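Sample pair:
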Amino acid sequence: ILEYIKFYITIFLLKKMQPLSEKYRAKNFSDIKGQDAAIKELRKFIQEFPKKKSLILYGTAGTGKTCLAHCLASELGYEIFELNASMLRDRRALDEILKHSLQQSSLYSKGKIILIDEVDGVSGTQDKGGINELAYLIDKSGFPIIITANNIWDKKFSKLRNISHMVKLEELHYSLIFEIVKKIAEKENLRIDENVLKSISIKAKGDVRAAINDLQSLTHETKV
């Protein structure tokens, strides 16, 4: 019995320590604010697949690129296989890991989405081979591939741009960010003046994650 008590206490503490940006990450498209056009394009991409085998979500940090990919998988009941851009620095590892995933059917869901996150995190000419390999694997893929980037306009990404459906995410107006942080504050029982929440929302400059992180910094002082 003592072990069970310890286990549940541990789970409780982990939940308490969980960052608010993770705790309140959108689970479905209905949770996402201000990106209706991008959601429409994502659905179109899936409906028309394999007309285009990859889609690039690009825009400034904190606009919900990764979150949108996960919400799409959730809506479809698909498995999501996620790779970070660091994989592109090792062409052999990329080929081994991604190629295996592209060939293997999902065991637990109706389908699969491959997510390559923060592709613009690669730098220098040494990464070009990995990007070329990624373009080659996209061409051979039997599954839709979603790529995220803050800035996709570097010359070395030209091949990816040419073969992908491009979707720009808009910076959220501060009023939408205010709506999000206000709701989180209410759920967390935080007594924070609305003017402070508006200030956080404006300061974020379209970055929802930054606003939620700023809200988190106030939680220790404002819990009821």
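Residues 2-17 form the longest helix (16 residues).
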